Amino acid sequence: MPHYWLFLALPPLLAAAVADIGWRIIPNWVPLALVLGYAVAMIIERDPTGLVQALAIGAGVLIAGIVPFAAGLIGGGDVKLAAAVAVWIGAGALPEFLVVMALVGGLLALVTLALRIVRRLLDHGRRPAGPPSGVPYGVAIVAAAVWILAGRP
User: Fold this and answer.
1) Molecular function (GO) terms listed (predicted)?
2) Is residue 54 within 8 Å of residue 38, measured between CB atoms?
3) Of 9, 96, 92, 87, nearest to 53 (Cα)?
4) Rounded CA gap, 106 and 104, in Å?
């Protein structure tokens, strides 16, 4: 898909990252907007086969995400966002997307843990008020998506 279609994906991706940082919630409209934006692009590009293949890839990621969601390892919004991003990424770049997402997510988890430790030390061991708990993994998903989508020729 040409680079110029990125303008359809970027606003919902940025909204997902901001919402996940601030509230640890990814609004349902974000994955919906991503999938609809891709559908519009494929309709304009006259590529119905590409649309069907992309939706199948997204469905596969959604189904694969059910297990870690059920185990409490990842949030439902993160699973939906990853599936919607997979629609844009496609099968060819999906392994790279997953690796980049995991690396950024691990780094994000370390930074989140370090910030919590520093906040507790500064607050003399009491649990300070601060941002919501958990790792804003949507940020890792968005970073990996932008890495892949912006880097395509």
Assistant:
1) aspartic-type endopeptidase activity
2) yes
3) 87
4) 5
